[in-house]
Structures are given as C-alpha cells and as structure tokens.
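[audit] Reproducing an earlier prediction to check determinism. Same input, same settings, fresh worker. If the tokens differ from the archived copy the diff job will pick it up downstream; this log only records the rerun itself.
[audit] input (343 residues):
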Amino acid sequence: MKIVKLLLGVSVLLLGFVSCTGHEEGTVPDSARSVYYWKTVFKLDNAEMNFLKNRAVKKIYLRYFDVDYNEQGVPVPVGTLQFDSKIPQGIRVIPVVYIENHCLEKAGGLAEKIVKRVQAMSKANDIEADELQLDCDWTLRSRSVYFDLLSHVRKLLNEERNCRISATIRLHQLGQPAPPVDYGVLMCYNTGNLRDFQTENSILDIKDVRPFVRRYLEKYPLPLCAAYPVFSWKLLFENGQFRAILRDVDLSDSSRYRKISANRYIVLRSHSVPIPDPNSFGLMVRAGDEIKVDEVSARTIREVQSVLEGKRPLIDRQVILFSLNSINNNKFTPYEMDQIYSH
C-alpha cells in the first residue's frame, strides 16, 4: 500500500510538472542545428557548404517566396526561389513563406494558393517537406484574419499528410494570443528601429529584448525555439534621416569614407553605390551623409540566450541562425558559432 501511495504521489508530481512546462515541451523541434536561407536563388558556395558540414547543421528553413500585391492589388507570390544548387544530402528543408501584412486584407483563397505552390515547388525540387512555416508581422487589426489563415493552412496540410505548421513570433507579438500553430520561432533580431539615427543597434540589443522577456515569455502558451542574427547592415542617413540600407559598399576606401566613431562613417565625396534594382543606375550618396554599421557580437547573442533561458529553459534546444547567406561576411569564429549552437 505504501508503494502504491508513493507511486501515486510521484505520478501527481509528474503530471504537475508536465502541466507547468507543457508549453515548452509540446512540439518544440528536435535539437538539430538550423539556419535560415533568405535569398531568391538557392546556390551554395564552398564557404556555405563547409559551414553546413563543419558546424553539423541538419536543417534549413528555406524561404520559398513572399506574398505581396501585384499591380491589380491581388496577393501573388513574388521573389520566388530559384534552385541553382541541390539540397545537400542529410539536410532537412522547412519551406518558409513570408506574407506582407497588408495582403491579409484580401486573404480569401490565399491558404489554398500557398499550400499548392509550396507543394509544387517541393515536388519539382525533390524536397520531402513535412512542415511549413509562415512569416508575417501581423498586428492587432490583422490578427484574426491571419490566425484563420494559419488554421486553414494547417487543415489543408493535414488533409494531404500529417504535416506540422510553425510561425515566426516577433517580440511585440509575445503580448498577444498565440497563433494556432505547432510551435513558434522567436525572432531575436531586428529588435530596434533601423530608421532612428539614435538607435544603438537595430539588429539586436539586450535592452530591447528584456522588457518583453520579463513580461511575457515565461507564460507564453506556445512551444518556442529562437533565431539569432549573424548578419550586419550598413544604414545610410542624411541629416539624421534614414535613406537606405547599403550593399556592396567598401568602407575601407579612405578616399570616400572616414570613420568617425566605432560604428559610424562620414561620406567624404558624393558618388553612386549599387542597389538591388537591376534597372537603376544606383543610389547617390552625398558628401556629409553618415553611414551607421550595425552588427552583433557573439557575446551579445549569448547574453540574450541566457536571458531567454532564464524564463524558458528549453528555448535553445533548437537554435536557428539567420542566415546562411550571411556566413561569408560575418566575424564570428567557428568556436563562437559552436557556443551559440550549444548554449
């Protein structure tokens, strides 16, 4: 009898533990090291292939396409991914679709179109996907429509096969009801206002993360993993006003730029710089403009990880880095990468 009572007591304790931590256990992904890939062409160079191999990455969250309005104001796929490389052997692919928030105003039939296109792209490229992730910066106004869309997508996926659905979660969305998905990926990047000249670091700043973690993270009713930034960007300002994110700019060219602080440069003479639009002659930067360089150290990421794990100990069971296509340009050492992955 004493043994029975002891076992019953242990069972009650276990049930209590599960009920308290179920939001963490739930359907959080396995512990595979993961990366995002966020370009319009999937083409892996030697450095990216070596990173996947040497860091033992087993999963790629692969952006398939965005959803945005066409000229007629109809939501359509844009920036569809083209495959110039095959998926490396042993790598699992999670298709990701980014939806512009304003497209939710005309979401009728969108779920079917997304699922059909994702399945067609996967089949055409020999990808066996058992999960789909949707990414949208939804708001209070668009929340109900977006959640309905997620539920519809989930139903369609389960009609075909038992597929999971996940969604990105921005820090400000932690204070809202959780979306109807199997798990969320907490986006620990783009935490500040890049358009504000006074923002210390718009990519990731612990001061921007702490208030949301303190108020919402522990009780957020959805299994979560986290994604961390390994990218940087150069922000162009004119008289303190944001103008553009610059690409392919060599700030070591002392004839054009002079460093004036740890992460700021002044333009010495006017010239044109490249921009993504192939039909453009480029962007004119003017003498006196300032360029602010935002980048994140491994130490900052580990600090954020510790803060998150203080409220959700299992949140870093799966770590995702954003993104693989930034690996060539960052300053992280292999040791630092391993520290982030195994934090």
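[audit] rerun output stored. Observation attached for the diff report: The longest strand covers residues 57-69.
[audit] end
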